[in-house]
Amino acid sequence: MLNVFLRKMKSFLLYGTPFGEVYTKICDLMHHLKYGFKERNLKNDKAHLKYYLTKHYHIVEKGLALPEPRLGFGQPKILNVISKASQYESLYGADGLIVSIRKTFSDYLKFNEENSFDLPSSFELAVTEFISEGSHDGNGGLKHIQKEFSSTLDLQEFRDFAQGRVSVRDFSSETISAETIRDIVDIAKSAPSVCNRQGWKAHCYSDKLKIKELLSYQNGNAGFTDVIDKLLIVTADAKAFTNYESNQIFIDGGLFSMNILLAIHAAGLGACPLNTCYPYFIEKKVKLASEIPDNERLIMMIGIGSLKENYTAAYSPRNPTDEIYVAH
Questions:
Q1: Which domains does the chain possess?
Q2: DSSP assignment, residue 308?
Q3: 10: closest CA among 27, 25, 26, 23?
Q4: Which of 156, 246, 294, 299 is most buried, most CB within 10 Å of its CB?
Q5: Strand partners, 230
Q6: Is a pLDDT exceeding 80 seen at residue 6?
Q7: What is the 3-state secondary structure (H, E, C) of 281-305?
């Protein structure tokens, strides 16, 4: 019934009207309900299982990382993760996710043992058997960090770096290698995300005609379309999100996008973020043209190019800090 209503609304849709915005917001919600995973009714879908498992084993990681972890915490949740992880492993094999879960649960047993806490024998046996069924030599659980090595920049150095990043529209004709873009994305994936689910994607386009086609849907690239060497379309997978997280998809995607922009700046390249504030039916056209799956949402486009020895950028003064910072 709702889909019929939406189709009728679309037939009357006027781009840029309040009516069009209402239609788009309803479509946002429908997309989230269609693709997001359901905690109590989990589908037998690889992506849903992956994101569900990541959310719930990461809760154990966070518990271990507290100042004073509670001994024996989270036993029902751990047994639930073991059950779902075994299901995932039987269907898709023991990939890096399963290794990370085993490593986390191994650290959990070690933590309780070091604190002389006796776990229930049936629970401990279930966890031990799960760990022993495959490798747990990987990333997961806890990592130990020394404060002196936690950062290589002081605040002034980072200020200089961050304030040196500007939106560039004046690129040289030098080509950027695909390997450099891949390295940038590899660095950017260190961005935080809800329960470490990392639902983001970065689609890269190099063909000039394809870039021009995709940018024809975007209103902020006039005058420098032809000098963009690489185009990234940042998306986030709606399957990574669950109840009450329809807005989180844009928060996580935005954090990832900012990391990409900083990594581009660190690589000595220029970039201009380009918004994807479309009505829903335009977003579907862009995804079709860019071969992006329907379950992903568009976060932003990023036009990337090499820097000239001397180039111009909009001055873009920032608001006074006292207008932004509110001390309570």
A1: 2-35 (no CATH), 46-132 (no CATH), 148-306 (3.40.109.10)
A2: P
A3: 23
A4: 299
A5: 304
A6: no
A7: HHHHHHHHHHCCCCCEEEEEEEEEE
Compute the distance between CA of residue 123 and CA of residue 77 in angstroms, rounded to an integer: 11
What's the rounded Cα separation, in Å, for the pair 304 and 257?
13
Q: Among residues 91, 9, 7, which one has the least CA distance to residue 53? A: 91
The CA-atom distances, in angstroms, between 303 and each of 156, 172, 234, 259 are 28, 13, 11, 15
Which one-letter amino acid corresponds to residue 133?
A: E
152-211 pLDDT, tens digit each: 999 999 999 999 999 999 999 999 999 999 999 999 999 999 999 999 999 999 999 999
C-alpha–C-alpha distance, residues 205 and 203, integer Å: 7
Tokens of 219: 């209103």
Mean pLDDT taken over the chain: 94
Report how far residue 252's alpha carbon sits from residue 250's, in angstroms, rounded to the nearest whole number. 6
* Share of residues in the chain with pLDDT > 90 (%): 86
- Give the integer Cα–Cα distance in Å for 234 and 298: 6
Other CB atoms closer than 10 Å to residue 306's CB: what's the count?
Answer: 19
Whether pTM > 0.85 for this model: the answer is yes
E-assigned strand segments in 163-210: 200-205
> CA angle 194-200-206, nearest 5°?
160
